[in-house]
Specification:
Blueprint lengths: L2 H11 L7 H20 L5 H14 L9 H11 L5 H6 L1 H14 L4 H16 L9 H13 L5 H16 L11 H13 L5 H13 L6 H13 L6 H14 L3 H4 L2 H13 L7 H21 L1 H6 L1 H14 L2 H17 L11 H9 L10 H15 L3 H4 L1 H12 L6 H23 L18 H6 L7 H24 L3 H16 L1 H4 L6 H4 L2 H13 L4 H19 L10 H12 L2 H14 L6 H13 L2 H20 L11 H6 L4 H11 L6 H15 L5 H15 L6 H20 L9 H13 L8 H12 L5 H19 L3 E3 H5 L11 E3 L2 H9 L7 H18 L5 H15 L4 H17 L2 H4 L3 H8 L10 H16 L1 H7 L5 H32 L1 H12 L7 H7 L2 H5 L6 H20 L14 E2 L18 E2 L3 H4 L8 E3 L2 E3 L3 H22 L8 H7 L5 E2 L5 E2 L18 H9 L58 H9 L1
Antiparallel strand pairs: 1-2, 3-4, 5-6, 7-8
């Protein structure tokens, strides 16, 4: 029995105890059928189930809708897909008769009808072409068509799925389904009554939309005519669905219609163009046009091309007027027609001019809001026309370049994309003919410099003729360089730097010209090669550029020479010839590169290594071996006089400015040539590496020795280096590695670990003692400070584990290295995965916490990789052992142990993990209150994983009472997280419904932003801690503060004009003025001064530098300055009023600035009131009843305020400094106080400080 069927039946069997009656009935019926099959001794196959159920269904015929027919048909719908087609054909008549009766009887039962539809679909799909001609088959299919327009959604959906599936799979050998005629007639009849029965028309259009079939040719015209009449009914939903249905029908249009019929159909569709403001109908119409014209281009390419300009003129207004989704659909439609409807034979024809003219209209100002989409279409046209775009598109190219040069133009990146497409299409030579750089010679007034094109061209030149660079660009670079040197001689450094930079930018184009040019044999001449070699030696600034260009050329040519596909700018024969030509210059270039390599600082050699490797790939083996012999000879000479560099010479700053010792350089060159050496010279490298690996005085040389061994061991199996390492492994390499374990330098550990990993991969059975001998070093390597060294150590650990799992025997005498012990006296230890873990676990008995921690980390990594090869008893034993270290007081050990528990919580089965849950929880809770090293976070993370795997109730049972609050907090965080995810999902669905493709792109970007670590082990170990870091407990006031801050931020955004994304956009345009004068609207560049956004909103007040006063910065308060300015203006107004004889009148403006209720405006136009000083009289003044009272009030002396004399002047003002603003003035008098003391207050006992009076002192003494 098929596994899928058994899985479905098993789900039904367990429903015998369900509370739902219909589920109980299904399970009881299935169990009864299985019991009958078992009693009859029939096999438990789908055929047996089918026979039993069909017999029961025949017995239930005529029993009415309340019988067991529904249950039997439900089980039949599950069993029938597994029954053979031959049996279904044999029982076809019986099935149709019984199911048709059930169909009539159960017309009101949705579940029964869905089961009947499933059975009919399966039975009809099994019939051959002859059976489809029977009346019973056609009648049954008509019933399915009728149900596809049923008013009940579930029945209608299931019937439409069944019809679509049947029509998409015609019985062989038929191409058109036998029921296609019936379907077409039914659809036409239904659509003809759309005006009176729109609901049925909508349902049938939905069926057409989802059906992929070939329609009969005699009905296709009538079907299209019926669909074309629907948009004229002015029903929005019917119109949209009709367009979508026409799009689906077009899949068979090329087979069903001839050229004239297809053209007429397209003309009718074009005439039905909807309003651009109707996004649903417009997008559906544009998709039809795109699909229709693509198909029309296959039927009649020339006629389709002739109609393309008119089509672009018709669609391009939608890019301006439509909604955003309509604009994107219109752009996609034009882009597809440009790509598919322009035949290759018409690329250079005169008709292309009409297409270009239609598309150039999009550069007018009316399309300013959609220029980004227009630029995309222009770039696509450049790409399609390729070299034929010149000279027909020169005008568009010039216009885009002029737009790009305007300083206020906002779409510079989009314009750069168009210019880059033009460079790729027509080539740099034609491009510079249209847009010359104008850098050489004396510039004329009408010439515009276009130096900004150089960086743009650099990344877009492909397969261009090298001759143009040699004859045109190289002299330009020399001219610019000479001009820069002339400015240097005149002392004009700024101009010199500008021209030097321009010269380097011209040289930077060399990489693009070296990207597989077609004229390598003709243009890469000895003189040009010599010029490049000279620049390598004499121009350090140009070395990266030239080396990168040479590497691009060599790698591309070498790849094409070894490619048999024949796809590329050069054929295989041409690539081989070019590679041979370049190989002639390789020895001279290598010699030059070796000299430059030796003279360059160690930090700036990476690009040279890549270039040397590219030359080694094309040079002959004899030349490589001869070069290697010379390098080895120079290495021997250098080692004779070599002295280890001092510590100061190994710093990063020193290496950036000085070349390393000659011995280091020669060894680096020898390592680069490793993959290309023969046996003899590989043996020379092995001897040199063996000698340097034992070098203890110079750590760098020791590292390079191990690096040479590692590169030899990494070569592919079967190579000369791989065979040599295999032959010397047992006699030299393994003993050397074991003996030198104690003397290895820190900087050499990574290369040494890499060598250990490579050797462990190819160990023979008699060399397995190498694993236990090196295992402790590998374990310690997992705790290295260098990340790459740690990664290599883990790789070596896993490599050893894989080799141990392959089996073998370990010679323990060789491990101990005791030659006095006979091998026969030592037992042979079998190699397997459990033995490997025992070897690692031996490190738990170490004396240092560092080694214990490294051992636990190694066990965790190995267990994650090999847990499937271990028995559960052994894993449980490991768990019990490591749990003892979780409670260790050493944080380093405990941290590694918690990592082990994380791994255990993931890999162990639930039934194994549950018995040890209490022990695990009790152990890790020791660190639940420790914040250092994120121990508390790790503890919570483990608990979170345990809750996810075993459930909250299981963890709660073993949780100590004092830690129940932690569990309650975890429950709250889970509920909070669940609510947040549900809200995010609901918001995402709404956003996708409203925003379409943009929302999908944002969702994909947010999904891709989740943190991953690149490997499954690190994802498990560290992947979820960041989630818990953001989900710690938050106090209510903190949450309130965040909410308030969020609210303030939202209000600020609205205030500043940054409305939410969902708010309505304000349409309009602004003119940006400049200081050059009035804007000339007739100027072509006037469009760059128009903006769809308010320019004033983008303006920011320039920061004002603080003033200097007396050598100090003085920061002025804007409000204080505004107040002072208002006061000055008031005094000026008063003086002017007095001079003009208006003193007797009332000046309300002056009173608003100087009266008690005065106010002023700040620079931000806020109303402010002047601050009251301590001496100001703020009391209300009572009005006198008559003149005498007023006069008496004026003559009454006013008591002096505190800090002022009777005249109202501040006391001590004569001591105030004129410059220091408050400091005591030195020179005349040095007072001890600013305010003179009153003599009356100086009497004895008059001044009393609270708590120090005599009365208070006596009271304290009595107490």
């Amino acid at each position: 029995m098929e596994a899928e069927l058994e899985q479905q039946l098993s789900k039904i069997r367990v429903q015998a105890t369900s509370k739902a009656p219909h589920q109980q009935q299904h399970a009881a019926m299935l169990l009864a059928v299985e019991e009958t099959i078992k009693e009859q001794g029939a096999p438990a196959e789908p055929a047996s189930y089918f026979a039993a159920l069909l017999t029961l269904l025949e017995q239930q015929a005529g029993t009415g809708p309340n019988g067991l027919s529904g249950t039997i048909i439900y089980l039949l719908s599950i069993v029938l897909p597994g029954v053979s087609h031959l049996m279904l054909r044999a029982k076809f008549s019986t099935m149709m008769a019984v199911l048709s009766q059930s169909l009539d009887l159960g017309s009101a039962d949705v579940a029964l009808l869905r089961s009947v539809i499933s059975c009919l679909e399966t039975v009809l799909a099994a019939q051959d072409a002859g059976s489809w001609g029977l009346p019973i088959s056609q009648g049954t299919f008509r019933s399915l068509l009728a149900l596809s327009t049923d008013s009940k959604p579930k029945i209608r959906k299931r019937a439409q799925e069944a019809v679509s599936t049947l029509l998409a799979r015609p019985p062989p050998p038929a191409v058109v389904h036998p029921a296609a005629q019936i379907t077409a007639r039914f659809v036409i009849d239904t659509l003809s009554t759309a005006k009176s029965d729109a609901q049925s028309a909508l349902h049938i259009l939905q069926l057409l939309k989802t059906t992929d079939m070939i329609w009969p040719s005699d009905e296709f015209g009538s079907l299209c005519e019926a669909l074309m009449q629907l948009p004229k009914l002015n029903m929005p939903f019917v119109t949209t669905l009709s367009f979508q249905a026409i799009e689906s029908v077009f899949s068979s249009a090329t087979e069903s219609l001839d050229e004239d019929q297809f053209r007429d159909l397209l003309i009718d569709i074009v005439d039905l163009k909807p309003n651009a403001n109707d996004p649903l109908a417009s997008e559906a119409w544009l998709k039809i046009i795109q699909k229709g014209y693509t198909a029309y281009a296959l039927i009649s390419p020339d006629a389709c091309f002739q109609s393309l300009p008119d089509l672009i003129d018709l669609i391009i207004p939608d890019i301006e007027l439509g909604k955003p989704s309509t604009r994107e659909a219109a752009t996609q439609c034009i882009w597809a027609t440009i790509r598919e409807c322009i035949p290759d034979a018409m690329l250079g024809s005169a008709g292309i001019g009409q297409v270009i003219k239609a598309l150039a209209s999009g550069l007018s100002y009316r399309y300013r809001e959609s220029w980004a989409l227009v630029f995309l279409l222009i770039a696509a046209l450049f790409q399609r026309l390729s070299k034929f775009a010149h000279p027909s598109m020169d005008g568009i190219l010039t216009e885009v370049a002029n737009m790009r040069m305007e300083s206020e133009f906002e779409l510079k990146n989009e314009a750069d994309a168009v210019l880059g497409a033009a460079v790729r299409a027509i080539g740099p030579q034609a491009f510079l003919e249209v847009l010359p750089l104008n850098l050489g010679g004396e510039p004329r007034k009408d010439q515009v410099g276009r130096a900004w094109l150089l960086p743009l061209m650099k990344s877009h030149i492909r397969n261009a003729p090298l001759e143009f660079f040699v004859d045109t660009m190289l002299p330009l670079a020399d001219s610019l360089s000479a001009q820069g040197k002339l400015f240097v001689s005149k002392g004009r450094d700024i101009e010199a730097k500008v021209f030097s930079a321009l010269s380097q930018q011209v040289w930077a184009l060399l990489g693009g010209f070296f990207n597989v040019p077609a004229d390598i044999l003709q243009s890469f001449t000895p003189s040009f090669a010599q010029r490049l070699a000279m620049e390598l030696l004499e121009s350090p600034d140009l070395r990266p550029t030239i080396c990168g260009a040479l590497q691009t050329l060599l790698v591309a040519v070498h790849a094409l020479a070894n490619d048999d596909s024949g796809v590329g700018p050069l054929t295989k024969q041409q690539a081989i010839a070019a590679q041979t030509h370049l190989a002639q210059f390789a020895p001279d270039y290598l010699a030059q590169l070796f000299n430059v390599f030796a003279q360059s600082p160690g930090a700036n050699r990476g690009y040279m290594v890549n270039t040397i490797t590219a030359f080694l790939a094309v040079i002959t083996s004899d030349d490589i071996n001869a070069t290697f012999a010379r390098v080895c000879a120079m290495l021997d000479e250098a080692l004779k006089t070599h002295k280890p560099p001092a510590a100061a010479e190994m710093t990063e700053r020193y290496l950036e400015a000085h070349a390393p010792p000659n011995a280091h350089t020669m060894m680096d060159l020898a390592i680069i040539m490793t993959p290309y050496l023969d046996t003899e010279h590989s043996l020379m490298l092995v001897r040199a590496a063996h000698m340097l690996a034992k070098q203890n005085d110079d750590q760098i040389l020791q590292k390079k020795g191990y690096k040479a061994f590692s590169r030899l061991a990494e070569q592919p199996a079967g190579s000369v280096a791989h065979q040599l390492i295999g032959s010397t492994m047992g006699a030299q390499l393994i003993p050397m590695l074991i003996e030198s374990a104690e003397s290895v330098a820190i900087s050499s550990r990574r290369e040494r670990l890499s060598l250990i990993a490579s050797l462990s991969r190819n160990l023979a059975d008699d060399q397995l003692h190498f694993i236990p001998a090196m295992l402790s070093e590998v374990i310690l390597g997992t705790k290295e400070a260098n990340e790459r060294a740690r990664s290599v150590a883990f790789d070596a650990l896993l490599t050893m584990g894989k080799r141990m799992s392959q089996g073998g025997a370990i010679n323990m005498a060789a491990v101990t290295g005791d030659v006095s012990i006979d091998d026969s006296d030592m037992p042979q230890q079998l190699a397997n995965t459990e033995e490997f873990f025992k070897m690692i676990a031996a490190g738990l008995a170490a004396q240092t916490p560092h080694m214990i921690s490294a051992t636990i980390a190694a066990i965790s990594r190995a267990l994650f990789e090999f847990h499937s090869l271990l028995s559960m008893d052994f894993v449980v034993e490991l768990l019990s052992t490591v749990l003892m270290f979780v409670v260790n007081n050493n944080r380093e050990i405990a941290k590694s142990s918690l990592g082990f528990v994380k791994i255990i919580a993931i890999i162990l089965p639930k039934e194994v993990l549950e018995p040890h849950l209490g022990e695990i929880v009790t152990s890790i809770l020791k660190w639940s209150h420790e914040f250092k090293n994120k121990m508390r976070l790790k503890c919570r993370h483990i608990l979170d994983r345990l809750v996810r795997r075993l459930g909250l109730d299981a963890v709660e049972k073993v949780m100590p009472e004092e830690h129940m609050k932690l569990l309650a907090n975890m429950r709250k965080r889970q509920q909070r997280s669940k609510r947040g995810k549900e809200a995010t999902a609901a918001g995402g669905q709404q956003q996708r419904a409203e925003g379409g493709a943009t929302a999908q792109v944002e969702a994909a970007a947010s999904a891709s932003a989740k943190k991953t670590f690149g490997n499954a082990y690190e994802d498990v170990l560290y992947g979820s801690e960041s989630e818990l870091e953001d989900s710690d407990d938050e106090e209510p006031n903190t949450m309130a503060t965040k909410s308030a801050a969020k609210g303030r931020g939202a209000k600020t955004d609205r205030k500043n004009g940054n409305a939410p994304a969902s708010s309505a956009k304000v349409s309009g345009a602004w003119i940006k003025e400049d200081a050059e004068g009035p804007l000339d609207f007739l100027d072509r560049s006037a469009f760059t001064h128009f903006s769809t956004a308010n320019p004033s909103a983008k303006e920011r007040r320039a920061p004002v530098a603080p003033k200097m006063k007396g050598g100090k910065f003085v920061f002025e308060d804007p409000e204080e300055e505004a107040r002072k300015a208002a006061a000055v203006a008031a005094m000026a107004a008063a003086a002017a009023a007095q001079a003009g004889g208006e003193a007797d009148g009332e000046d309300y403006y002056l009173q608003s600035l100087t009266s008690k209720d005065a106010f002023y405006h700040t620079p931000g136009q806020k109303v402010k009131f002047p601050k009251r000083k301590a001496g100001d009289d703020d009391d209300d003044v009572e009005m006198a009843s008559d003149g005498e009272d007023a006069q008496a009030a004026q003559l009454k002396p006013v008591p002096a305020k505190r800090g002022k004399d009777n005249s109202g002047n501040a006391v001590g003002r004569e001591f105030r400094s004129k410059k220091a603003k408050g400091d005591v003035k030195r020179g005349n008098i040095d007072p001890f106080a600013y305010i003179p003391l009153n003599p009356k207050s100086m009497k004895k006992g008059a001044i009393s400080v609270k708590g120090n009076s005599k009365k208070e002192k006596r009271a304290r003494n009595m107490k």
